[in-house]
Amino acid sequence: MRKLIFLILLCSAPVWAADCRAGNVNLSNGVTCVFAGGTAGVSTNQSQSGAITIGTQTGNGVVIMAYFCYATDCSTAPADWVASHSYTKGSGAGGLGNGASEIYPSTNNPCGFAYVTTTSGTSGTAGNQPVWNNTSSACLAQTNTISDNGVVWTPLYAVIANGVPSTISCFAYSQNSPYYLQNNNMYQNFIYYCPSMSTDTLVELNCSVGVSCSFMSIFASVYTGMCSTAPCFDAEGDVNGNCVSCQSATPQTSTSLKYTKDLVVSLTGTIQDNETWAVAGGCVMIDNTSPAGGSNNPVAAKTLTNGGSTGSCAWSFSDPADTIGSMVVAIKSSSSVLAKPGNQFPRMYGMLRAAE
Q1: What are the domain boundaries of the chain?
Q2: Are the C-beta atoms of 26 and 17 separated by less than 8 Å?
Q3: How far is Cα 191 from Cα 141, in angstroms, rounded to an integer?
């Protein structure tokens, strides 16, 4: 069994072009794809992914989906936190590639982050394990370092950078990122959106700790007619998107869309490589980036004219007994407005009649 390679699908209404890499794709509702491309990681203990040159995109919405593994085999969890234990940041600049310690705390860690030692020392005593993170705010708002007696821990996560590398500030993360697909918490899966990238010309995924993220992969697509003022995310989720010994799935957002004319984006992956795939449910081909020796990483897209329902994308793979994971996000377009509630007049009229 080879490492998991994720797929990306961007979903919504009928489209008559085949691939945004070959030319613009009109997605209806004022949204057009003008660029698509990606790079899938094939190395362990990386500091950054490969870069995608997209050019300046002033006034265009940039959607990025990305992932990496905590573990070099993408499956074996790091050890749990141990009290009164000596931890090291490794040699030189540190990081897992230089022998730094890594843990995956089983308590006080609802976000499921792995942590890497960035200052060597001895952990706290029993009963004094740090509160690594909580459920009161988005996980990616809790990426501060953690002091643990003499040890300093840094969570592993990814940011979008420009190759200098310097973080590109216009990118916002979705509220529920990172996702752990296929019920495998060794994978961090992210969704980012920038409403206008006016100065930088390329994007890459940067690891929060150097030489510590494995199989770093990033996929970008650019659209005209998109949301320009935050908040731009409408809904997201991975409902019905994960299964074992299966061949198809239809991931859905966990809530109904509050806005009309959204672009819906779905990240999907399988355990087996070198499969063929099909997209349905109104989603169409945008990009089909392939890693070296791995399975395809397709991007598909559509727009949804009406709000009030969940965003979803249906897809399938050739292996009938694979393990599948996927997530979905809906992002507002520039034409999106709050969806009107259902007509309440008949119900109100009936109530008035009954009161007579």
Answers
A1: 5-70+159-331, 86-155
A2: yes
A3: 14
Tokens representing residue 242 in the block? 């994960």
Q: Which of 62, 70, 13 is nearest to 34 (CA)?
A: 62
Other CB atoms within 10 A of residue 293 CB: 10
* Model confidence pLDDT, tens digit, residues 133-176: 999 999 999 999 999 999 999 999 999 999 888 899 999 999 99
How many other C-beta atoms are found inside a 10 Å radius of the C-beta of residue 267? 29
The top-scoring range by mean pLDDT among 70-79, 289-298, 320-329 is: 70-79
As a whole-number percent, the residues of the chain with pLDDT over 90 amount to 61
Q: Comparing C-alpha atoms, which of 350, 255, 246 is closest to residue 307?
A: 255
CA diameter of the chain: 83
R_g (Cα) of the chain, nearest Å: 22
What is the distance of C-alpha 33 from the center of its chain? 19
Contact 314, 280 (CB under 8 A): yes
Paired strand residues for 221: 36, 63
Q: Which pTM value belongs to this model? A: 0.88
Bin 74: left if φ > 0, else alpha if -120 < ψ < 50, else beta.
left
Are residues 323 and 245 in contact, defined by beta-carbon separation less than 8 angstroms? yes
The bridge status of strand 151-155 relative to strand 146-148 is: antiparallel
Distance CA 316, CA 250 (A): 9
Give me the amino acid identity at 161.
A
pLDDT at 342: 57
Structure tokens at 105: 């705390």
What's the pLDDT at 273? 65
**What's the CA gap between 340 and 324, in Å, rounded?**
35
The letter for the amino acid at 237 is G
Please state the separation of Cα 330 from the chain's center in Å.
Answer: 12
9 membership: H or E segment, kind and range:
strand 5-11
Full strand arrangement of the beta sheet holding 52-53: 52-53, 202-207, 158-161
Q: Which two tokens stand for residue 40?
A: 């899938």
The Cα-based distances of 326 to 43, 62, 68, 157 in angstroms read 22, 20, 15, 19
